[in-house]
Amino acid sequence: MTGKESVQDLALFGAAPLFTEKLHVGRPNLGNRDDLMARINGILDRRWFTNDGECAQELEKKLTEFLGVKHCILMCNATIALEITARALGMKGEVIVPSFTFVATPHSLQWQEITPVFCDIDPWTHNIDPARVEEMITSRTTGIIGVHIWGRPCAIEALAAISARHGLKLMFDAAHAFGCSHNGRMIGGFGCAEVFSFHATKFFNTFEGGAVATDDDELATKIRLMKNFGFKGYDSVGYLGTNGKMNELSAAMGLVGLESIDQFVETNRRNHSRYREDLSGLPGVTLVDYPAGEKYNYQYIVCEIDEKEAGVSRDLLVEMLHAENVIARRYFYPGCHKMEPYRTRFPQAGFTLPQTERLSKRVFTLPTGTAVAMDDIDKICQLVRVALALGPELVKGAAARL
Ligand code: T4K
């Protein structure tokens, strides 16, 4: 850099944050507001607020078509959906999961006394590494939960082969992967069942919500009963059940969002391309890409930082971005095996998870979605560029100055 450039660059880290309002990762996508209000009025008029109402039935039907599956069962959130699905599949003992995921994945097992056994990931895909899965299988193993991290499908065929070889149940946590495809087929149609999250921060949201997709009639019937206390008829309960139902307001939000789904994808795709252009050529910074030929929702702008090459650590970059009101997130730091109750139960787990430990220190996510403007993206990337050019000492000052 020339002296002149560095003075301009330093001015980026001004006395006040670059952005006057906080730019969050996970800002919800919102469909047509008038349509939503009209649907909400309909719900109020009908006075049918939950328990498989009109909106929920319509949404289930539309999602089933969208995903190309036989059943799509709405749920109040993905965590309960994971719990119910694992239970309905008869998972018990030990189930193999990645540690590089949101803590809801292992919690959904541990909550019902099933032990999550953490498996390492492939450093390139960030998904569970099938080559490591077989090493984790014991006589107590009953299943595998693959997670499609960032909406990029995990090694579906390899996991299916391992499951078949060892007689295990295979399900997927597809919380990130609504609207994504694998070999031309929509995610939702793989394994025994796949679970989506429709949380506010997800690509497609119902405020809070989720769904289980499956082609298995028997499993679908069981899950439907389990999510409604086990009720088989008015006064007859056939299973131990819980309350996993989605309410009508959430279903209405989903119906309206579904109308705008193409626009959400397009905005995310455009944002991702802009980030790619703006960050290209930066040493030590890799933007997680979405390979051509499949559908993606492009919901996650994931950067991997190689501190040696970049000259600045991931944590310092995130600190600096926060000081500028860019609320980047360190998903999924520090790895589930370092969170309770797993850290205490499995203090040695880190030894078998080198790639998880490495990656969780290197990645962060940046804001995207319909609430982020192109101009914002340019400024965010400029901050990263300048941080790398100035080096750790000046960035530390920038991060600490407010
Ligand atoms: N499996 C996987 C792989 C998952 O990633 C998740 C959820 C699940 C399972 C379970 O799904 P659900 O049971 O939630 O359906 C957030 C979400 O709460 C969580 O749903 C999500 N993964 C996870 C990756 O992110 P936090 O603790 O980071 O949330 P919070 O409150 O810090 O919000 C995240 C960002 O979103 C902030 O920057 C603020 C912004 N935000 C959030 C909300 C709620 C908004 O702008 N508007 C909002 O309404 O977990």
Notes on the protein architecture:
The protein is 41% helix and 15% strand. It starts with a helix and ends with a helix. With 402 residues, the protein is an alpha/beta fold. The strands form 5 sheets. Strands 2-10-9-6-5-3-4 form a 7-stranded mixed β-sheet, sandwiched between helices. Strands 13-14-16 form a 3-stranded antiparallel β-sheet. The protein has 16 helices and 16 strands. It folds into 2 domains: 4-27 and 260-328 and 367-399, Aspartate Aminotransferase, domain 1 (Alpha-Beta Complex); 33-259, Aspartate Aminotransferase, domain 2.
Quick recap of the structure?
This protein is α/β, with parallel strands linked by helices and 402 residues long.
